[in-house]
Write a structure and sequence with these properties.
The protein has helices at residues 9-22, 63-66, 108-122, 150-162, 180-192, 218-226, 243-247, 255-262, 266-299, 302-305, 307-350, 352-357; strands at 29-40, 46-51, 56-61, 78-88, 93-103, 140-145, 168-172, 197-204, 231-235, 250-251, 361-365, 383-387, 392-396, 411-412. With 413 residues, the protein is of the alpha/beta class. The chain has four domains: 9-105, Nucleic acid-binding proteins (OB fold (Dihydrolipoamide Acetyltransferase, E2P), Beta Barrel), CATH 2.40.50; 114-264, Hypothetical protein af1403, domain 2 (Rossmann fold, 3-Layer(aba) Sandwich), CATH 3.40.50; 271-300; 355-412, no CATH class. Helix 4 links the parallel strand 6 and strand 7 (168-172).
């Protein structure tokens, strides 16, 4: 302070800060209010305002304090914040430095459960359409649980009773505490890398909400949803529900029930197979008897009792057919020969050669080859050729005199 008693802004702020810090009523104080203007900074620190109907106070919750929060602070959420009142000197604002934060009116874990459930459901992680059916008869069963819990003993006991020869692969995991979520995720991934595992049981025995919290972790839910192997969630007792139950393909009320879901009863299967085999045997025998009876009936037919008789009849029918065909062909050839002779006679009667044979002749001009039918077609000296029955006569016209028409024009006798 200077000689005039005037304080700087920084000096006044520090005096106020010292008063607030030294007041025991403002150390470890718990404040109830509604969150507004919430911001989760990239540095990991949380900044928000707590308000009621009449007032508000700025709050900051550093990363080291909020890292263990199981729920997600958000605007409108009523909470109880515990911390120390101080002053942010750069702005001259007094604020609450929050060390712990719990929901007002409901437990922190219950709120975290509902928040995560709503968020993952909105993503479609619990959609029934993505649930896969369990295999009827798996080649191997995978189990993710603690090696020291009763859950593993119950699962193995049920599987050995129902299907003694069923192979079981166990991936041990920590199922409680801070290490639990990461341990369960790694165990699920190990089982998924094994060949021949067709169904996976993930779970543990009963406990309090805090003890079961590993299976309410988002990382575990996403690992179950990403598993290539169908997953049965078996956490706690029948009344216990976890986020893993919603993410899994099937929920079992207990680990023992999960084992019953995973494998059928070997004795029942063998009995069913034996019954089917007996039915198949009877069906085959019945079919064989029916075929044998039909074969016997066919063999008793006369044609098959003495097959040579049937062949003799067919040989005789073939001979009769050949003889009938020969007679028919002979008759047709004889009739065709008669028709041919008649046609040849008619053709011979109409032939010009036959006319020439009766003493007629055909006269043509040698120079033009035309048939001479009239006197004016030739003149003295024109060369002609006369065709008689068996020869041709060459000569020249001495004269051409019209005469009475001959029997056929152009033909001389």
């Amino acid at each position: 302070m200077n000689e005039w008693g005037v304080l700087s802004v920084t000096e006044l702020t520090r005096i106020v800060k010292e008063r607030l810090v030294t007041d025991p009523r403002l150390t470890g104080v718990a404040v109830r209010g509604e969150i507004s203007n919430f911001k989760h900074h990239g540095s990991g620190h949380m900044y928000f305002t707590l308000k009621d109907a009449a007032s508000r106070i700025r709050c900051v919750m550093f990363r080291t304090n909020n890292a263990r929060l199981r729920f997600r602070p958000e605007d409108g959420l009523k909470v109880i914040a515990q911390g120390d009142v101080g002053v942010y000197e750069a702005a001259g604002d007094y604020q609450l430095y929050v060390r712990s934060l719990v929901p007002a009116g409901q437990g922190e874990l219950a709120l975290a459960f509902e928040q995560l459930k709503a968020r993952l459901a909105a993503e479609g992680l619990f959609d029934p359409a993505r649930k896969r059916p369990l295999p009827f008869l798996p080649r191997r069963v995978g189990v993710v649980t603690s090696l020291h819990g009763a859950a593993l003993r119950d699962i193995l006991s049920v599987i050995r009773r129902r299907f003694p020869s069923m192979p079981v692969i166990v991936a041990p995991a920590v199922v409680q505490g801070d290490e639990g979520p990461e341990s369960v995720v790694r165990a699920i991934e190990r089982i998924n890398r094994r060949e021949g595992v067709d169904v996976l049981i993930v779970g543990r025995g009963g406990g309090s909400l805090e003890e079961l919290w590993t299976f309410n972790d988002e990382r575990v839910a996403r690992a179950i949803a990403a598993s290539r192997i169908p997953v049965i969630s078996a956490v706690g007792h029948e009344t216990d529900f976890t986020i893993a139950d919603f993410a899994a393909d099937r929920r079992a009320p207990t680990p023992s029930a999960a084992a019953e879901m995973a494998v059928p009863e070997e004795a029942t299967l063998r009995a069913a197979l034996g019954s089917l085999a007996e039915r198949l045997k009877r069906s085959v025998q019945r079919q064989l008897e029916q075929r044998r009876d039909r074969l016997d009936a066919v063999c008793r037919r006369p044609s098959l009792a003495r097959p040579e008789r049937l062949l003799d009849q067919w040989r005789q029918r073939v001979d009769d057919g050949v003889q009938g065909l020969a007679l028919a062909m002979s008759g047709r050839l004889e009739a065709a020969g008669g028709r041919l002779a008649l046609a040849a006679g008619k053709l011979d009667a109409l032939s010009p050669l036959a006319t020439l044979g009766r003493g007629y002749a055909i006269c043509r001009r040698s120079d033009t080859g035309e048939v001479v039918r009239r006197a004016d077609q030739v003149a003295p000296g024109v060369p002609v050729v006369v065709r008689v029955h068996e020869a041709e006569v060459f000569g020249r016209v001495e004269r051409a005199v019209p005469a009475a028409p001959p029997a056929k024009e152009g033909i001389f006798r």
